[in-house]
Structure formats: C-alpha cells, structure tokens
Amino acid sequence: MERVPILKLGDILIISIQIDLDDQSVLSLQEDLAGRVVATGARGVIIDITAVEIIDSFIGRMLATIAAMCRLLDADTVVVGMRPAVAITLVELGLSLGGVRTALDLEKGVAALEHVRGRGATR
User: S-S: 14 plus which of 7, 62, 65, 99, CB 3.0-4.6 Å?
Assistant: First the structure.
C-alpha cells in the first residue's frame, strides 16, 4: 500500500493525492495527517485532489472527517483541485462535505487559509 506524502510549507501541510485512493489508504492518510498536524503545529492543511478522477461515498465522507479532525487540532482545511466530475459525483451521492472549504487550485487554497487566519488581504 502506497502512503500519501505530506509536505510542509511554513505552518501549512500540503497533501497532493497522486494515487488511486482505497479505503485503507484514506484511513492511513487520516492517521498520518493527525500525527503531522500535532508534531508540526500546523495551522492549515491543503488537500490537493487534482489527480483524483473518481471518488466514492466512503472517500467523500473521509475528506469531511479529515477536515473535522484537523479543526479539532486547530488547523483549517481546504480541498483544492476538484474536477467537475468529482463534484457532480459528490452531489449525486448526497455528500455536501459540510465544513470543508474548497478552492480551485493550490494558490487559491493558500490564499484562503491566509484569509481565514487573518494574515492576508482579501482578494
């Protein structure tokens, strides 16, 4: 099983998902991310799903769960790079991803985190 790498940029952790996600890899990501948020004191998490072509209900729920977990650990989460087909699938599955911020790309995701944390100007 491949693990999803977690990169650190300042006080932001960046997860770029480049593999096909299965249930076990998402559970491993959740555990790895929780440990990294605590270990680094990260204030923000960006999950880049640009390469994700298909998402099922479990993966969708886990994205919401990961965002909620990060909030409890004092880190805001933004999901970036969602493809139109993935958005359509999530809506068709009835998954609203409540509480999960989204942005079109990594740059806008970083800006969203800076705005939420009060460090950046509104664009």
Answer: 7
Checking DSSP bridges between strand 12-16 and strand 44-48, what pairing results, if any?
A: parallel
Residue type, 123: R
Residue type at position 97: L
User: pLDDT for 47-72, tens place per residue?
Assistant: 999 998 888 888 888 888 999 999 99
Tracing tokens 């977990």 back to the chain, one arrives at 69
- 84, HSE (Cβ side, Cα atoms, 13 Å): 0
Residue type, 108: K
pLDDT on residue 1: 67
DSSP per residue, the chain: -PPPPEEEETTEEEEE--S---HHHHHHHHHHHHHHHHHHT-SEEEEE-TT-----HHHHHHHHHHHHHHHHTT-EEEEE---HHHHHHHHHTT---TT-EEESSHHHHHHHHHHHTT-S---
CA–CA separation, 45 vs 94, rounded Å?
24
